[in-house]
Design goal:
This protein is α+β, with helices and mostly antiparallel strands. The chain contains five helices and seven strands.
Length: 169
């Protein structure tokens, strides 16, 4: 993979963001217009990864207090008063393993520390299985705190958390 950069998402990026997201389903959830609008106005981090002039990755990080219908987000909201939640990370295959995901997560963790959040939250599919993502989260210090079937079907997700110490300032 050639050099890449991370920048905030822009409204003109929406079609490219959808394309990257679709290429990563079912590991990430579908991305409709309502979610794109919510992310554009309320996400703590709504970023894209650009390589050779094309968007090759998407990252969405949220905080508590949003009117967001995601059952996974609501699960963490019921558990924590303040938290930082990775809603999605979607990368084109040729970007994986290049350090992009680590850079995105590191940036979000720094934001969470500076914003006084003490826990990073995410979920990882277990049915259908996503072992690459589970290994990534374990390597970054996340632990599985539960496994749930949020949608009532066969799908299952591991709810993962990483305790962080807020930066004192």
């Amino acid at each position: 993979m050639s050099e890449w950069t991370i920048r905030d998402a822009r409204s003109e990026d929406r079609e490219s963001i959808r394309r990257v997201n679709v290429a990563n389903e079912p590991e990430v959830g579908q991305l409709d217009q309502d979610r794109l609008e919510l992310f554009g106005r309320a996400a703590a981090r709504f970023q894209v990864v650009v390589a050779e002039g094309s968007i090759v990755g998407v990252f969405v990080g949220l905080a508590e207090g949003l009117d967001y219908a995601s059952l996974n987000y609501r699960w963490f909201a019921d558990r924590h008063d303040r938290f930082a939640y990775v809603d999605r990370i979607a990368l084109q295959p040729d970007v994986r393993g290049s350090g992009v995901a680590d850079a995105l997560y590191e940036d979000f963790e720094v934001w969470a520390q500076e914003a006084g959040r003490s826990v990073l939250c995410a979920e990882v599919n277990t049915v259908p299985s996503n072992p690459r993502s589970l290994r990534f989260h374990e390597r970054r210090g996340f632990v599985v705190v539960d496994e749930v079937a949020p949608y009532g079907g066969e799908e299952r997700v591991a709810m993962v958390e990483k305790v962080i110490r807020p930066r004192s300032g």
